[in-house]
Amino acid sequence: MAASTKRRGAAKKERRPKRKVCNFCADKLPEANYKDVTRLRKYISERGKILPRRISGNCAKHQRHLTVAVKRARVIAFLPFVAE
């Protein structure tokens, strides 16, 4: 009992990785364009899914614009729905 209580305070603090910067804010782009396929491909996984914010590093506003742009590009057939 005494050994377990002493160990709790001595545990190493975990460092969180530095927050990623939104690429759209850094490049001062107002929103994602569905015709810019090269930029959209960076935010799609190998399976064809849209990467979440915590992985892509986008802010909430630009992540919403990105999602709409990817979905539009899929409908127009600029991007595939699933990976081959």
How would you describe this structure to a colleague?
By secondary structure, this protein is mainly α. 44% of the residues lie in helices and 0% in strands. It is built from 5 helices and no strands. The chain is globular. The model has no long low-confidence stretch (mean pLDDT 86).
> Which segments are poorly predicted (pLDDT under 50) over 5 or more consecutive residues?
none
User: What portion of the residues fall into strands of 2 or more residues?
Assistant: under 5%
Secondary structure class reads: mainly alpha
Euclidean distance between termini CA atoms: 56 Å
Order of helices and strands: HHHHH
Shape: globular
Largest sheet: none
Offer a few descriptive terms.
5 helices; 84 residues; mainly alpha; 0% strand; 44% helix
Describe this structure in a few short sentences.
By secondary structure, the protein is mainly α. Helix content is about 45%, strand content about 0%. It has helices at about 1-10, 25, 35-40, 55, 60-75.
Give a topology summary.
Blueprint: H1 2-9, H2 23-26, H3 37-41, H4 53-56, H5 60-75
